[in-house]
């Protein structure tokens, strides 16, 4: 019964973590942008829809603040990365950052919220929308360069800086489409083509090549040709490492990964048959 209760508890934590991932990773921008847009146009919809949109915006922002306080005040701090139940629940906010740079998740979360609000609530003013989006990207560039939240071996600090700089460039180019700028149609067309080329280059060099690189790294790790480093940190990593260390003790490097794993004597694992001392 106790094992069943433990399985149900882990299952519930995993479901809560999946809800956090879906809400604040996949659907934060569209849901929050649509809700804030409804709030800016109250006369076009019923009062019920406007009230639901306002309640949804409040719940998302309030939950983000509470989750931030909960993660920031968690003690001991190391259990955020080592405890499996904590990772299942809150890991989606910080599990790609280093432990000493945990505070970066606050910047990333509220920059995403600021983008979503700019998309939805600032539709009537293109200049204000572009200004807020540009500020979000500048803040992200400065914090990534200053904090360096990702492990140096992953090169994600450089990649995230490049992506933010590209987004900032496309945002500034979009100023030509603001009605108050009164740009010529030919200039708008050429700027639109430039933006499309920039997006295509990011898709090819930023995502396709990175996917190929990740596959190669996984292949090399599978062949035992790479050191785990900081990537082996955490509850989920320990599960696989413990499984690896339960092999016979002649596996090299097993005592280096988790010192707490006690490797029994070979005689205990492979008992010898009884020896018969016969006297002649």
Describe the protein in words:
The protein is mainly α and 280 residues long. The protein has two domains: 183 residues, no CATH class; 34 residues, no CATH class. It is globular, with a radius of gyration of 26 Å.
Radius of gyration: 26 Å
Instruction: List the total number of helices.
Output: 12
The profile of the biggest β sheet is:
none
H/E topology pattern: HHHHHHHHHHHH
Question: Helix proportion of residues, in percent?
Answer: 55-70%
Distance between the termini: 60 Å
Number of strands: 0
Domains, number: 2
Which stretches are low in confidence, meaning pLDDT under 50 for 5 or more residues running?
Answer: 1-6, 230-280
**Overall 3D shape:** globular
- The percentage of residues in β strands lies in under 5%
Structural class based on helices, strands and sheet pairing: mainly alpha
Put the structure in a nutshell.
By secondary structure, the protein is mostly helical. The protein is 69% helix and 0% strand.
What is the element layout, followed by pairings?
Layout (H helix, E strand, L loop, with lengths): L1 H25 L1 H13 L6 H26 L6 H4 L1 H11 L9 H18 L4 H22 L8 H18 L11 H38 L12 H11 L8 H4 L8 H4 L11
Helix pairs in contact: 1-5, 2-3, 2-6, 6-7, 7-8, 8-9
């Amino acid at each position: 019964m106790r094992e069943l209760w433990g399985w149900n508890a882990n299952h519930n934590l995993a479901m809560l973590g999946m809800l956090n991932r879906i809400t604040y990773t996949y659907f934060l921008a569209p849901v929050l942008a649509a809700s804030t847009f409804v709030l800016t146009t109250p006369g076009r919809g019923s009062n019920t829809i406007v009230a639901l949109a306002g309640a949804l915006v409040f719940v998302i922002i309030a939950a983000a603040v509470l989750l931030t306080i909960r993660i920031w005040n968690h003690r001991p701090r190391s259990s955020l990365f080592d405890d499996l139940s904590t990772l299942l629940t809150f890991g989606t906010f910080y599990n790609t950052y280093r432990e000493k740079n945990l505070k970066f998740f606050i910047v990333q979360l509220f920059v995403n919220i600021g983008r979503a609000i700019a998309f939805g609530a600032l539709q009537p003013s293109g200049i204000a929308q572009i200004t807020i989006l540009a500020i979000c990207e500048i803040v992200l560039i400065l914090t990534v360069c200053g904090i360096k939240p990702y492990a140096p071996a992953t090169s994600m600090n450089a990649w995230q800086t490049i992506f933010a700089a590209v987004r900032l460039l496309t945002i500034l180019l979009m100023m030509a489409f603001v009605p108050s700028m009164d740009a010529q149609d030919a200039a708008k067309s050429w700027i639109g083509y430039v933006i499309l080329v920039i997006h295509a280059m990011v898709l090819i060099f930023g995502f396709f090549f990175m996917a190929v690189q990740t596959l190669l790294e996984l292949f090399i790790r599978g062949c035992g040709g790479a050191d785990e480093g900081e990537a082996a940190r955490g509850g989920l990593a320990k599960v696989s490492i413990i499984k690896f260390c339960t092999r016979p003790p002649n596996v090299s490097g097993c005592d280096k990964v988790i010192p707490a794993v006690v490797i029994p004597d070979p005689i205990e694992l492979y008992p010898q048959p009884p020896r018969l001392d016969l006297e002649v």
